[in-house]
Amino acid sequence: MSEDNTVEFDDGYVPSFSDAPLGAALGSVAAAMSAVGTAAIGALMLLIVADVIGRNFLDLPITGVSEIAARAVVAIVFLQVPAAILQKRLTRADFLVRRIERASPRAVALIEAAFCLSGAVVFALILWPSWPKFTDSWTTAEFFGVQGVWTIPTWPFRGITALGAFIAILAALYRAGEELRSFRGAK
Q1: Is there a contact between 46 and 88 (Cβ–Cβ < 8 Å)?
Q2: Which domain does 71 fall in, by range?
Q3: Rounded distance, CA 81 to CA 101, Å?
Q4: pLDDT in tens, 125-171
Q5: Residues of the chain with pLDDT > 90: what percent?
Q6: Phi, psi for residue 147 in degrees, rounded to 5
Q7: DSSP conformation letters of 59-78
Q8: Which 8-state DSSP code applies to residue 81?
Q9: Domain for residue 138, yes or no?
Q10: Is residue 6 part of a domain?
Q11: Does residue 23 register a pLDDT over 90?
């Protein structure tokens, strides 16, 4: 691998506990959430394939697949975004970042810190209305679907959104701190 293509997280994005206890705990939680999100992608694929086969070949569609898929996609994003933040894998113009980094590593560290801080604000703005919606859906036993035909509670999906936004805030703040430390240490 050339110098331009070295990957920062060769040793993973979970630092050792002795080096960074907060980073280790946060990285472990994010990795576990990402693993659950990955498993959910597989389960969703199987459900959709089963519905397509049942619908087209057996004339037996699975009720509620579109509703589950719509909510599961959002849940999967919120399960996987904290790990993406910690790994610096969110969508961005990497070619531009690398070019700036060659000229000034300190500038990139500052840009990354600003990006992480703005991300923390965005996820805080998502968490702000998500938490009350989660608690309301929990206490009122809110569901989606057609009562008497097929229903599923909304609180797990709302809870995943709130949890994912909260962990994403922590991940973004942690990354911002790391970038600012890098800014102070870079030449």
Answers
A1: no
A2: 21-185
A3: 24
A4: 999 999 999 999 999 988 887 787 788 889 999 999 999 999 999 99
A5: 49
A6: -60, 130
A7: S-PPTTHHHHHHHHHHHHHH
A8: H
A9: yes
A10: no
A11: no
